[in-house]
């Protein structure tokens, strides 16, 4: 049977399962917890061992095999990566998981293939809880002509471990562990185990994994499993129940340690290349108090293959959003035939961090492109909650020398582009009764910049578009705001000195963009400047009216001249919610 490479990217599920406190305790008993870690087994003070998350994988393993067509006879669970977004509520509830095959790598003829499957799990309260990334090693499927997995290096520090934890799984350990979901006969049936080449049933790799998870928590952040953010390892050898194991831990930096678990009798690693990461207590407390999250929300970021858009996409995904990473991958002036690489690289970055994203390579500058970008979100994730119109190019020239192509090209990407994507997105948001749209303007538009008449016109056009969409979106809970960023990207790399560029990382702008995308943002119609950690509002305002003449007859030009200082003054100027409010004020 040949491998089905079309399986890559296909959605599997969702599957919803219920769990309660007893499932948390049963898992804890299965991975060796007892009286000395009462918080894992006693419902009065219960905390879930984070590796409980791995049990969500069991519902999908069969489908991973079926959809990819790998040869079941040669399948091994090679590596496991767990990313934690929010603590697992110990009281239980419904968990909904959705999976995808994210890659199939070819190690070569006779060397096998790697199938990478990702499962994202949400609690019924909408919070994204965790991501499982399983690497299945398929011994019999190599040599299909695919690309090989990127090489990774791993080295334990050249010193004794900082901590060691000895444990003795019981001779019957798999009989308890299997009740958490992996009921494969290899771990219970002596005849089946012998047929598979073992003396007797073996430990589940994910059971030993739970022992290791307990061990690292005990030594690195005791009693606070909710601080774990990442837990990764390779499964390297089988282990018989009843064999003593030792988890060896090296702390390599603040919030990061390496570990392995060895079979004490042979000295060989059964879990290898382990990495655990955790957050500070302060961060964990903040998260517990409900930080701003985008769990279950779907975001489109245009021009997200680099610069500001890339960071917006990464940060949104980190906080739980499913992201459409759009980028056509052209040159700074919008020329060139485009490339899938920038969008693909950002999608990969997001997925490796446990997030969900799909790439889209359409140009925002055409109607069809805009429709296709929004359709990508609807097809992949079912809705659109957030749109950041960010894609941009530059074709600078002083106005006298500017060609019509330079004018048109810039307006097509910035102004038409925002229209092309916002129109279908706005429709989807109205139907959903929720939306957050962010436009990207520029100081060049708000205040002018030599050589950028095209860009300034387009960028100020976006502010006008926002002013009206804020009104039309209001009753559908669609908020529309505008960011005026300043950041070191390829658009600005040659216009600012290097020491200034260093201070203007896109990461310093992203928190504002994310805030404007959040449910918590109740504002609509704002323009906010952001750069280097500094933020300020910009606005169009109008000064109090000055009456010239008696209101019956038109004033003379000379009268205007005489009153010029008063008309010109912005003192006591104010903003208006819409054009009517301004006109009524003037007429009154
Ligand atoms: P960037 O060049 O790093 O990113 C822009 C991205 O948009 C690129 O990856 C590009 O491939 C993509 N893109 C261009 N045309 C596209 C099209 N037709 N369809 C889809 N994608 C397309 O630049 P940067 O600085 O990150 O710019 C982001 C936004 O911020 C732009 O709208 C820019 O005008 C605006 N801005 C940036 C400032 C800064 O200081 N970096 C200042 C003021 C505004």
Keywords:
binds 1,4-dihydronicotinamide adenine dinucleotide; 588 residues; 18 strands; alpha/beta
Present the secondary structure layout.
Elements: E1 11-20, H1 21-30, H2 58-68, E2 75-84, E3 92-106, E4 113-123, E5 128-138, E6 163-167, H3 173-177, H4 190-195, H5 205-220, E7 228-235, E8 245-253, E9 256-263, E10 269-278, H6 281-288, E11 298-301, H7 307-318, E12 322-326, H8 341-352, E13 356-360, H9 367-381, E14 386-388, H10 404-432, E15 435-440, H11 443-447, H12 453-473, E16 478-485, H13 498-503, H14 510-517, E17 527-531, E18 534-538, H15 557-562, H16 564-568, H17 579-587
Parallel strand pairs: 11-12, 11-14, 12-13, 14-15, 15-16, 16-17
Antiparallel strand pairs: 1-3, 2-5, 2-7, 3-4, 4-5, 6-8, 7-10, 8-9, 9-10, 17-18
Helix pairs in contact: 7-8, 7-14, 9-10, 10-12
The structure holds 1,4-dihydronicotinamide adenine dinucleotide.
């Amino acid at each position: 049977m040949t491998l089905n490479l079309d399986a890559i990217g296909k959605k599997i599920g969702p599957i919803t399962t219920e769990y309660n406190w007893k499932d948390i305790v049963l898992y804890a008993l299965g991975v060796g917890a007892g009286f000395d870690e009462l918080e894992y087994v006693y419902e009065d003070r219960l905390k879930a061992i984070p590796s409980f998350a791995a049990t969500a994988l069991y519902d999908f393993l069969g489908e991973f095999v079926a959809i990819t067509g790998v040869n079941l006879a040669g399948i091994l669970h090679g590596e496991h990566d767990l990313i934690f977004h929010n603590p697992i509520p110990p009281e239980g509830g419904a968990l909904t998981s959705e999976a995808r095959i994210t890659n199939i790598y070819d190690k070569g003829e006779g060397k096998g293939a790697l199938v990478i499957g990702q499962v994202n799990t949400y609690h019924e309260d909408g919070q994204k809880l965790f991501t499982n990334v399983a690497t299945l090693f398929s011994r019999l499927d190599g040599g299909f002509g695919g690309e090989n997995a990127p090489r990774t290096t791993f080295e334990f520090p050249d010193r004794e471990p900082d901590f060691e934890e000895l444990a003795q799984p019981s001779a019957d350990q798999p009989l308890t562990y299997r009740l958490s979901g992996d009921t494969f006969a290899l771990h219970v049936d002596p005849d089946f185990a012998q047929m598979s080449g073992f003396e007797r049933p073996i430990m589940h790799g994910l059971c030993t994994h739970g022992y290791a998870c307990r061990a690292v928590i005990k030594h690195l952040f005791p009693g606070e499993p909710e601080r774990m953010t990442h837990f990764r390892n390779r499964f390297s050898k089988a282990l018989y129940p009843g064999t003593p194991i030792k988890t060896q831990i090296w702390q390599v930096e603040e919030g990061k340690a390496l570990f392995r678990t060895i079979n004490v009798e042979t000295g060989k690693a059964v879990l290898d290349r382990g990495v655990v990461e955790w957050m500070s207590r302060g961060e964990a407390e903040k998260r517990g108090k409900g930080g701003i999250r985008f769990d279950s929300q779907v975001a489109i970021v245009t021009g997200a293959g680099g610069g500001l858009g890339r960071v917006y996409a990464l940060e949104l995904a980190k906080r739980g959003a499913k992201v459409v990473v759009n980028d056509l991958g052209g040159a700074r002036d919008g020329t060139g035939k485009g490339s899938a690489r920038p969008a693909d690289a950002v999608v990969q970055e997001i997925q490796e961090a446990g997030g969900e994203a799909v790439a889209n390579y359409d140009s925002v500058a055409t109607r069809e492109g805009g429709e296709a970008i929004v359709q990508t979100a609807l097809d992949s994730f079912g809705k659109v909650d957030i749109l950041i119109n960010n894609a941009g190019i530059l074709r600078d020239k002083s106005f006298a020398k500017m060609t019509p192509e330079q004018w048109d090209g810039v307006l097509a990407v910035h102004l038409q582009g925002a229209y092309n994507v916002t129109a279908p997105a706005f429709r989807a948001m109205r139907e959903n009764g929720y939306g957050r749209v962010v436009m990207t303007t520029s100081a060049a538009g708000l205040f002018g910049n030599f050589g950028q008449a095209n860009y300034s016109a387009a960028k100020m056009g976006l502010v006008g578009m926002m002013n009206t969409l804020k009104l039309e979106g209001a009753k559908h809970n669609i908020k529309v705001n505008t960011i005026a960023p300043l950041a070191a990207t390829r658009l600005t790399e040659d216009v600012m000195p290097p020491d200034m560029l260093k201070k203007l990382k896109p990461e310093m702008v992203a928190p504002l963009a994310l805030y404007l995308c959040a449910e918590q943002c109740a504002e609509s119609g704002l323009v906010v400047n952001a750069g280097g950690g500094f933020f300020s509002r910009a606005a169009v305002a109008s000064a109090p009216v000055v009456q010239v003449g008696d209101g019956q007859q038109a004033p003379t030009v000379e009268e205007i001249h005489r009153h010029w200082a008063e008309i010109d003054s912005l003192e006591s100027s104010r903003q208006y919610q819409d054009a009517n409010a301004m006109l009524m004020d003037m007429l009154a």
